[in-house]
Amino acid sequence: MPAEPAVWYFWTFEPDVLLPSFLICAIYGSGLFRRRAFGSQLQIWRHISFVTGIALINLSLASPLDGLTDHLFWAHQIQHVLLRMAAPMLLALSMPQALLISGLPRSLRGSALAPFLANNALRGVFSTLTNAWVVTGLFIASLYIWQIPSLHDAALRNEGIHYAMHVTMLATGLLFWWRIFDMRPSPGGLGYGVRLMMLWIATLSQIGLGAYLTLKTELLYPAYDIAGRLFGITPLTDEATGGFIIWVPSAMMFLLAAILVIHMWGKQEDRVRAARPKWSAANSDALRYPVTGAALIELARPKNRKLAVGVAAFSLAVFSMTIFAGVLNHLNTVERYRGALMSQALGGHLAAGSGRTVRTQTR
Q1: CA-CA distances (angstroms) from residue 339 to 8, 211, 332, 345?
Q2: What is the DSSP letter of 43?
Q3: Does the bond joining 187 to the residue before it have cis omega, within 30 degrees of 0?
């Protein structure tokens, strides 16, 4: 197809992507300079994580991948993975809040940021949006809603709707992964068990949708055929590949995130244990860590019960999803087999009818 090379090599340098990226990087660099002036030392991996996250956003929206998303469902899902997961994960892991605030002009910090932080109404709205279950629901909804065939096809045909798709996916991804990788322990941040539960729910939602899109037999997104699918890929293969991207690679990223959260949990407990010798009998926090074995077991009993219930529920859910995928695959196989039999029967009837017509004409 003559359109394939143009799409594959076409880079778009739109100001609505490049200018915010440049501005954020400039503020980050200014904050780094100011913090270093006061002797603050940050790990190099945090800077690499931040820059890589910004680069992935630009890669998904300005590279030839963006052109491919109008023609291939699987390319669109790769773009969504970058916008909802990979880039926000890296940005959240870099923990850039302090540097970004330090990098803002002093006048802007006083005239805009301080009133916002002091406004109880705005803080209440932000607190609601960042509630563990609200932000998890928004994160899942940003995937499911835009996979509704009518909305998905509308986004391909209308640039404004397509823009809203990208903005909502990136925004909900940033909120979700910021809550997951927030360095503050409870009560400032979320409890680590809650974070693991959020990841578990999001993982199951990805597996369910991905399994369905991978194993289905009907065509859901005809808008790609109108634009023209590239590389000679068939529509069902294109959509099945996109479903697999939602199913497996995304689930593996959630698994990596869970490992990082468990690591953060362990480091927090190490910090607490290291601080115990500094506590006095008058410190009420010391009462949370008993010195006898029986008291320690009693204190750990509720946590162990919650962990056991969580592991059992996760195992049951994964088993149920596996059964669901197997049943769906079986039903699709039976449907394809019936379709093949009907095609053969119809072909036989047509051939027989043609034969009778020829014999009649011969007589």
Answers
A1: 36, 22, 10, 10
A2: -
A3: yes
**First CA to last CA distance, the chain:** 51
Q: What amino acid is encoded at 354 in this protein?
A: S
Q: How far is residue 308's CA from residue 154's CA, in Å, rounded to a whole number? A: 45
Q: Specify the number of domains making up the chain.
A: 1
Residue of 177, 100, 73, 78 lying closest to 135 (CA atoms) = 177
Instruction: Please state, in angstroms and as integers, the Cα–Cα distance from residue 344 to each residue in 208, 236, 274, 337, 350, following that order.
Output: 34, 21, 75, 11, 10
CA–CA gap between residue 334 and residue 332 (Å, rounded): 5
Q: Considering the domain boundaries, does residue 339 fall inside one? A: no
| Nearest of 79, 74, 83, 80 to residue 229 by alpha carbon | 74
Query: Could you tell me if residue 309 is inside a domain?
Result: no
Are the C-beta atoms of 151 and 65 separated by less than 8 Å? Answer: no
What pLDDT does residue 294 have? Answer: 65
> Where would I find the H helices in the chain?
3-8, 15-37, 44-62, 64-68, 73-81, 87-93, 97-103, 106-108, 114-118, 120-129, 132-147, 149-157, 159-180, 192-215, 223-227, 235-275, 293-362
Of 119-133, 208-222, 271-285, the poorest mean pLDDT is in 271-285
For residue 275, what are its two tokens? 């601080």
Range of the domain at 138: 3-272
Say if 202 falls within a structural domain.
yes
Percent of the chain past pLDDT 70, that is, above it, reads: 71
Dihedral angle computed from the Cα positions of residues 279, 280, 281 and 283, in that order, rounded to the nearest 10 degrees: -60
**Residue-level pLDDT at 34:** 82
pTM of the model: 0.78
Residue 10 backbone phi and psi in degrees, to 5: -90, 120
Pick from 203, 192, 201: which is nearest to 303 by CA?
A: 192
Tell me how far apart the alpha carbons of residues 40 and 258 are, in angstroms, rounded to a whole number.
29
